[in-house]
Amino acid sequence: MGSLVSLFLLFLTTITTSDGISVFPFHRSFSSLSSKFVETKIHPLPISNLPPPPRFAYVISGSAGDANMLKRTLQALYHPNNQYVVHLDRESSTQERLDLSNFVKHHPVFLRFGNVRMISKANLVTYRGPTMVANTLHAAAILLREGGDWDWFINLSASDYPLVTQDDLLHTFSYLPRDLNFIDHTSDIGWKEFQRAKPIIIDPGLYMTKKADVFWITQRRSVPTAFKLFTGSAWMALSRPFIDYTIWGWDNIPRTVLMYYANFISSPEGYFHTVICNSPQFLNTTKVPHEDPVLDKIDSELLSRGPGMFTPGGWCIGSRENGTDPCSAIGNTTVLRPGPGAKRLQSLISSLLSNENFQPRQCK
């Protein structure tokens, strides 16, 4: 099954979160949010006053045998105004990576909009080690440099699959401040203090050309006092300002924390969480089996997506007759056609941003 913390019920996943705050938003400025916010910003506005839709930047990563699933997830998530980076790690075969590269380079829709990129030089990724964090930062840097304007960065595995359309997602996020971050986090690390924070691991993926599992050294270390540890899900939606800060690290916190997590088991479950909750300017901003039949049911009943097709949205103006892909004819890419999924998202966001949930439980 997939690995995303049910971000707004967006993705099918089996992850079980810690006892922390699940998918809790941060916000950089408390003053801009009042009890009035949820009531006025979430409900639909008159058509003439609709805010501009946001743009998402996705990284979708996979390993050996994931190419076909990655293609399917990419098509299910696709919208012409978003940006995408796809990556198959070095465990995948050369042929598998070549097939994915050809799919990205030669698909007529991707060619037209130029918004899908593949990391051609595959990274070696150890999924319990810091190389997974390095791969995520690599994709984020590419999107900052080449991806134009976008508002949120979302990291996914090839096994994650959406439960709402991009039109539903874009419509709902249109009403949100663009500096919100959605990340499952808690400072109550519990058993992880003894089993993850104090042990020291080495990830051979940092310096070897062939994959090997992480290994432990006999010496242990104390829990940090220079910064506070946070943990949570490795899957999140992060604002562009925070991603920019993580890459540039102008006050050095992101680099310091990254060097610490280089010897931390399962570092993807703590790196971004610890950075965001130890950075004053962001402190208060705050997998499915391949070809599983449930994916076909999601495509049919939730996404209205045919096999090998994109998830239709307002940008798709073609006919569905005789099994034709409606997205083969492209209209205005700024038009959104939200469906029932948008109502589910609005209800959940209203709960997340309520007085009871928003401010009192950030970085606790």
From TrEMBL:
Q: Which GO terms describe its cellular component?
A: membrane
Q: What is the protein name for this chain? A: Uncharacterized protein
Taxonomic lineage is: Eukaryota, Viridiplantae, Streptophyta, Embryophyta, Tracheophyta
Q: Which UniProt keywords apply?
A: Glycoprotein, Glycosyltransferase, Membrane, Signal, Transferase
For whether the record's keyword set contains Glycoprotein, the answer is: yes
Q: Which Pfam families match?
A: Branch
What topology does it adopt in the membrane?
Answer: Single-pass type II membrane protein
- Keyword presence, S-adenosyl-L-methionine: no
Cellular compartments annotated? Membrane
Signal peptide positions are 1-20
Q: Which GO terms describe its molecular function?
A: glucuronosyltransferase activity
Q: What is its main location?
A: membrane
**Superkingdom:** Eukaryota
